[in-house]
Amino acid sequence: MGRNIGLVQTGAIGDIVIALPIARYWVEQGHRVFWPIDSRFFEFFREAAPYVDFLPVDVKLTGVNNAVYFAEAPKAMLAAVHCEEVHILYSFLGTYPLGHRNFAHSLKFDEYKYAVTGVPFREKWNLQLVENPGRQAELRQKLQLPESYIVVHEEGGPGSNFHRAIELTPEQSRDSRIVKIQPLTASPFDWIDIFRGAAEIHVVDSLHANLIEQLRLPVRKTLYLRSEVRLTPVFSDGWQFK
Q: Which CATH architecture has domain 4-124?
């Protein structure tokens, strides 16, 4: 008989994407998965992953970057929908007690999420998303893409001040249009179709890098590193690293 299972990972978008296959794994086994997430992300995740019962955490009420936002409000919401088991997916949350310290000290943070839930780590690459062809076409129209283009992403996610300048060779700039990822659509997943058609992709470790990796997009791609080893997820699908 199916159970109500809750996940605690309010943000960030890339971390939610990393863990989405965990939810899919349980849903395919007949369980129902409830997942409180940042209200700013709620609509596009609900559209892209309708197999999950997402619950919006109202950032106007909780604020951000505090224990209420990250843990207390989500746990209360999951209790209200009678979740029989709840898994906190953070490997580190300040002084908040999480448990599994040995996992956190030894595993990368994406490996940690799968270890604490007992879901095989290979499921990370079973990412299932519903795309919106209409918005994807609108984005292509906005960008007026030529036949050959290179996608570049230099920024961290929402709320991050991270920036790493990516310099391409004169030959790359001459032969292909450089397209920088920008917030031009209602959903970051609308860029997936742009990624598929790119001649090359050059991105920092971010949401977009996670999408490209987990969907195993067969594109020439370079990852620009930003974090120490435990905070860098596993990238196994043919990347060059800088």
A: 3-Layer(aba) Sandwich (3.40)
